[in-house]
Amino acid sequence: AICGHGCKYGECTGPNKCKCFPGFTGKTCNQDLNECGLKPRPCEHRCMNTHGSYKCYCLNGYTLMPDGTCASSRTCAMVNCQYGCEEVKGEVQCLCPSGGLQLGPNGRTCIDIDECSTGKAVCSYNRRCINTFGSYYCKCQLGYELKYISGRYDCVDVNECVTNRHRCNLHAECLNTEGSFKCKCKQGYRGSGFDCA
Questions:
Q1: Residue 22 resides in a domain
Q2: Which UniProt keywords apply (predicted)?
Q3: Which has the closest alpha carbon to 85: 97, 76, 72, 98?
Q4: Count of other CB atoms within 10 angstroms of residue 14
């Protein structure tokens, strides 16, 4: 089977028909499925959508069970955790619902880890890291756009001269460069290319 637009997070099962991996949706399986919005809800108390998945957490005074339900816990209530807690061998420890969050100095609230500045994020050479609360994503560098080419998604150079995204003077030529563009005044004119006289 051939899928002309590809199946980003799925597999091609018929002519232009994609079967998405769990946690993804859309014609080309390129959209994250918000499991928190599904009926029945996957979590009893609170739900945080993540890329391709989700995380459950409980209100204060409750402990998260493996099936997403929340069990009452008097000791947890006394600790006053932001995102619920767990009890291990009689010790109460606050939890954070994502690996991109860490317990703050007070041991009760979760603070964001900026994966982009700590170097934990891995983005390919032509992508830049964008930090989000509890995670991050990789976006094409400025001057590039995401396109599906020969079986995979890649960041390709935007030809600003063709898309008219340049600010060259009326009396200048636009020259496309990798990730950018240049303006050169036409013969008989002088200037920066943005201003020609």
A1: no
A2: Calcium, Cell adhesion, Developmental protein, Differentiation, Disulfide bond, EGF-like domain, Extracellular matrix, Repeat, Secreted, Signal
A3: 76
A4: 10
Residues 28 and 6: their CA atoms lie apart, in Å, by: 6
Q: Are residues 105 and 171 in the same domain?
A: no
78: its two tokens: 């006394």
Any idea which residue has 């002309």 for tokens? 4
pTM: 0.47
* Per-residue pLDDT tens digits for 31-87: 999 999 988 888 988 899 988 899 998 887 778 887 888 877 666 766 778 888 887
Same domain for 165 and 106?
no
* Tokens representing residue 125 in the block: 């050479």
Q: Give the range of the structural domain holding residue 82, as residue numbers without chain letter.
A: 34-112
Distance CA 168, CA 20 (A): 44
Q: Is residue 55 part of a domain?
A: yes
Distances (CA, A) of 1 to 11, 12, 17, 147, 178: 10, 6, 8, 21, 34
Look at residue 140 and tell me if it is in a domain.
Answer: no
In a shared domain, residues 106 and 38: yes
Q: Is residue 23 a part of any domain in this protein?
A: no
Per-residue confidence band for 21, with pLDDT thresholds at 50, 70 and 90:
very high
86: domain CATH number is: 2.10.25.10
Nearest CA-CA partner of 178 in 197, 156, 163 = 156
Say if CB 95 and CB 107 are below 8 A apart. Answer: no
